[in-house]
Write a structure and sequence with these properties.
About 15% of the residues lie in helices and about 30% in strands. It has about 725 residues and is an alpha+beta fold.
Amino acid sequence: MNRSARWAGQFRSSLLASFAASLLLAGCGKAPTVVNDAALADEANANDWLAFGRTYSEQRFSPLAQINDQNVGKLGVDWYLDLPNDRGLVSTPLVVDGLMYFVASLNVVRAVDATTGKVNWTYDPKVVEHAGNRLRVGWDHSRGIAFWNGKVYVATWDGRLNAVDATNGRELWSTMTVDPEKALYITGAPKVFKGKVLIGNGGTENGAARGYVTAYDAETGKQAWRFFIVPGNPADGFENPAMEMAAKTWTGEWWRFGGGGNAWHGFTYDPELNQLYIGTGNGSPWNQKIRSPGGGDNLFLSSIVALNPDNGEYLWHYQTNPGETWDYNSNMDIVLADLTIDGKVVKALMHAPKNGFFYVIDRKTGKLISAEPIAEMNWATKVDLTTGRPVEVPAARYPNGVATVMPSAFGAHSWHAMSYNPGTGLVYIPTIHVAGVYADTGIDLAKWRSPDWKADQLTLGVGIHWPSPLPARPDGVFGTLQAWDPVKKQRAWEVALPGAWNPGTMTSAGNLVFQGRADGTLVAYQAGTGKELWQSKLGLGISAPPVTYSVNGRHYVALLVGWGGAGAAVGGAGLAAHGWAYGAQTRRLVAFSLEGKALLPAQPAPVVAEPIGARDFPVDAGAADRGAVVFNRCMFCHGAGAVAAGMAPDLRASTVVLTASAFAEVVRGGSRKAKGMPPFREFSDRRLEDLRHYIRQQGELGVAAAAAAAQTAKKP
């Protein structure tokens, strides 16, 4: 080829490249973002929100400052999207190149224009068709999705991990991550790193659960490695030296009960140290007297476990609750930051699990740096910094059958994400202030330990009575947002919140912290002081954390609005009082900006379900007692004591219960399966009748309580 021909070819190639580049610039203004390790580690990328915690550090901090503490009062609704067929919305949306991706009820994923809310595509993984009887366990919500190399990853209620083409919503591959015969489910967001996608599962409370996490090839879905969290039967051999080590910390025949440890949330990848941190779950069953009757630390329950991300090999661990017996899991988020402590820069890991302590740990080695209480507690007096172990109060283990313990099983901090602002040096934590009554009186512990005991894979079984919640603070405050200084090891500021079940936080370089609230209000606080600067009433309880992003120079704050999560399921009367009764208000995705002028349609007023009386339905006390046992299968959605907090209908107010045939059509026939109500086809007529009598008994008690309250209100 001569020089002129070569030049002509180069010119044509250059022209085509310029034309392609001009198309990109005319469209989104830049080349498409390749979401990979470099992108997910890039703290400077202010435009996108690429992962659950925005970046690998899980700080939920944005460098955007266009919206700041001086102008946040001008925020208005920019756009919204109604989601009338959805229910509990708790997830973190992702934003990539002006498109927003989010997961809603039954794991349906949508991609929408992040500047208008217009739906680009919808992906339905057909959860109801795949789940079968496993609809009876878990919940109809998901904490989020993951994005990698042009693919969206969603883990489903029924245990699958699916990869979807980000351009059109087409399913690329699907793999089952659990044994379909076991009562395992997924509510957590997948974690992507180094060409792999990681997922765990829930199910500690249903059957004999042995937790694990699995990494899959992000391009093919082929399993790369699996790490079990607790050891199995020693007679079967151990998968690795870590399991052999862990087995020495268990007693009895723990493997018959599964052991637990299920890791359903709390995964962080550290690209700097090439380590993967897993927050692990509580014991299965909760009661250690059953699963490990001779005591022991029960590794790796309630721990942070560091793994080699390339092969899943154990590196180190730190256990927050040795011999866990209160549902004090460590599945809460794990946040990475470099902290200057005693004049030295420490590669730190920050963690606030259920047990009420805030931990700062050297993430290179797992060595404890500090652990201080962030809420009321009486199960321990402190954490010994020399040994790293909590100094327990023996009476908290309910040795005589009952104990009132703080925090409750809801934890001082649940899965609602905390955030960290490098500018203020503070961590912003949604905190719960509730105690719990733990009791195993009347439970035949010997029967559980009998060789004849077999786990029912679809029945709630924790080895204690379901803990009754109690106030933990004399001022009656059940929830707060607090700013914690991890270096000074003290609270910087705190504000009271409505109720106990308040969502996660997001912070920004604009000296702001955003948090929704259980009363349906989105609030912006000054990050350094906690001063409230702005709020917007959205007319429905918020359970999802906000995100922030920028498109074409406009800065947005967005979040899903839809009351959900475990608190909206089993929270009982306290959370039902908010008025977010099942189906009463419309779920939405709402975005705000400084330029926002949209009018958000008003929501229906809060509605608290009112139990109905039925004089023509006399309650049989014996049948109701039997029905109370059956209702244990129902309480995870319909609420303890049949008092629904909003995730499912309040059956005390349902006319369906009054007619045997209508009740059977729903419960046994599965007529509402499409909405997530599983069929119980094995229920006999007598069992259905017992269940009806229990529900009606609770309904009549509710009617009587309401009448008494009304009478008291009339008195001068």
